[in-house]
Task: inverse folding
């Protein structure tokens, strides 16, 4: 049925495929180096031992570097970083957190259910593009690392593609191949029932088991822990705080902070603040975490939080671009010890604005600029990159490098959303390939200042570029040398004489494994004719075997290069190759068992 004459080139490619997977999994050497070594080995192999038909010249093997899928992924990573830089989805995330009533698991379930449903009728790549910054921000809001939401997002999008004929490009390829082979056309909902069974099993795994297997990387860490900073809120003219009255000693707008003191002209007002109404000119001394202070700055762009240094300079520093938040500790031998911030002129000397001061085990009710500094005090700073660079050599404070994070520029949030819609909508509606819209969108994000060139370059993960280039080269080599077809033939020979249900089960498992090395579309094209021949040889209906191709080709969970959306979430989730194997392989086995139990029973095999 499948006759492939093994060749030295085929054996060499199969060996290189195995070595690549082992190298990616063990990570004894960097993933980038493994990918480059595989590319180099393939180039040398087909230069020394070219195929008879002249296939796989160097330009074809290196074509992955210019592959539209890779270009789209790189551009989408840049766009995603722009959405984070501008906090464009902050309002939507706050709404989601409110609807979820402050529960991270409930918010995650709602988000993943939306992803699965939308992916059933839209290409899953733009769906992941939409939800990636949303879930990233949602995780940060609940204090969870991005690694806990990125892989569930990708898996949910892929599973949604199993619900309808248009859910995945590989589904349409299988339907087209069946039509050319004279088989019955597949309808829009032909795969929905068995697909729903598989999606239900996958949802249980994604929600109950997957969180236990995922690494906790990209955590907020100490910079976002529960330690409190003393900060000042200046009730300036036009502030939304004017006229707000304390209820039960708490001000409704000042959530997440503890009000320590209200300075009204020369008169301090101490707690409890029963029936106190804020007036223009009041200075509110609060204790709050860095996370809360950051949200106040981001949300109001200085309308609520106005720093002491800004008042002295008569400006609002939060209007500057490329601002960073960082922490610096007062050194034990610092000249600033025993002096107030106003006396040291720290803001003017360093170019860093002090937002707050953290001092352990002390209840502070002193205005920020009047507080006398002590060794070990931690200053929360707002500054641009040049100022932070200068602070590294400052003899009075020790910059905590790990604490630096960029401040979102929310003023450009609406513009970023507009560009984002221009990227996603044409691709989702099939009006234009996503590679074109993504490239134009990335250029627009940079041109309009939603992010700069440095930030865009940092958003591109070199691992992804080299992984997909090597994976595409290996996939082309497996197809050209007949390695994939040879593996299918071996499986068929082994299963000779077995019951149709057993052959169907093994056929599904073979495709599900190979689709993590080949592309899902390559598997769809390669195995659809095999499915028709298998069914004919066994005297069984073709449709169950077509389902094995459709669902098996979508089981791209065990490698980052198995599916485009896996590559999209690899960088933001800070995943390694082995993370996909550890989390994706059990899901493939679960889907294989559910498919093997349900489909033969339902279709009477």
Result:
């Amino acid at each position: 049925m499948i006759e492939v004459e093994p060749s030295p080139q085929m054996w060499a490619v199969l060996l290189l495929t195995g070595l690549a997977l082992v190298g990616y999994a063990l990570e004894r050497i960097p993933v980038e180096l493994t990918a480059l070594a595989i590319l180099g080995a393939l180039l040398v192999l087909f230069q020394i031992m070219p195929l008879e038909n002249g296939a796989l010249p160097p330009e074809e093997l290196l074509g992955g570097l210019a592959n539209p899928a890779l270009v789209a992924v790189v551009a989408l990573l840049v766009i995603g970083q722009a959405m984070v830089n501008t906090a464009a989805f902050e309002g939507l995330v706050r709404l989601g957190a409110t609807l979820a009533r402050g529960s991270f698991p409930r918010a995650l379930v709602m988000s993943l259910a939306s992803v699965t449903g939308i992916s059933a009728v839209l290409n899953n790549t733009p769906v992941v593009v939409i939800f990636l910054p949303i879930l990233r921000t949602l995780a940060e809001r609940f204090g969870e690392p991005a690694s806990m939401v990125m892989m569930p997002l990708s898996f949910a999008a892929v599973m949604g593609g199993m619900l309808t004929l248009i859910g995945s490009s590989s589904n349409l390829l299988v339907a087209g191949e069946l039509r050319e082979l004279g088989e019955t056309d597949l309808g829009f909902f032909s795969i929905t029932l068995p697909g729903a069974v598989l999606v239900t099993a996958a949802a249980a795994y994604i929600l109950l088991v997957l969180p236990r297997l995922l690494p906790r990387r990209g955590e907020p860490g100490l910079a976002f822990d529960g330690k409190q900073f003393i900060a000042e809120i200046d009730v300036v003219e036009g502030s939304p705080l004017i006229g707000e009255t304390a209820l039960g000693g708490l001000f409704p707008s000042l959530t997440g902070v503890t009000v320590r003191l209200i300075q009204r002209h020369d008169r301090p007002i101490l707690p409890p603040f029963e029936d106190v109404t804020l007036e223009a000119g009041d200075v509110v001394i609060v204790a709050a975490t860095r996370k809360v202070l950051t949200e106040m700055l981001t949300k109001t762009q200085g309308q609520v939080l106005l720093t002491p240094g800004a008042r002295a300079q008569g400006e609002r520093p939060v209007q500057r671009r490329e601002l960073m938040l960082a922490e610096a500790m007062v050194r034990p031998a610092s000249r600033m010890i025993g002096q107030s911030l106003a006396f040291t002129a720290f803001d003017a000397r360093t170019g860093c604005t002090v937002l707050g001061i953290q001092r352990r085990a002390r209840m502070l009710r002193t205005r920020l600029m009047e507080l006398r500094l002590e060794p070990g005090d931690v200053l929360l700073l707002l500054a641009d990159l040049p100022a932070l660079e200068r602070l590294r050599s400052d003899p009075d404070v020790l910059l905590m490098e790990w604490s630096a994070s960029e401040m979102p520029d929310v003023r450009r949030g609406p513009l970023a959303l507009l560009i984002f819609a221009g990227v996603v909508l044409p691709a989702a509606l099939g009006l234009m390939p996503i590679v074109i819209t993504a490239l134009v969108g990335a250029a627009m994000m940079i041109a309009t200042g939603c992010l700069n060139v440095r930030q865009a370059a940092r958003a591109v993960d070199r691992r992804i570029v080299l992984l997909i280039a090597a994976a595409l080269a290996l996939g082309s080599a497996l197809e050209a040398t007949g390695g994939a077809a040879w593996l299918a033939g071996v499986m068929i020979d082994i299963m000779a004489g077995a019951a149709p249900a057993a052959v169907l089960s093994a056929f599904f498992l073979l495709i599900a494994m190979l689709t993590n090395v080949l592309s899902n579309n390559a598997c769809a094209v390669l195995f659809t004719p095999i499915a028709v021949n298998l069914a004919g040889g066994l005297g069984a209906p073709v449709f169950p075997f077509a389902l094995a191709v459709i669902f098996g080709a979508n089981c791209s969970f065990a490698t980052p290069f198995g599916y485009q959306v896996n590559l999209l979430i690899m960088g933001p989730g800070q995943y390694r190759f082995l993370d996909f194997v550890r989390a994706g392989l059990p899901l493939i086995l679960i889907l294989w068992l559910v498919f093997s139990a349900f489909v033969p029973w339902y279709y009477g095999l």
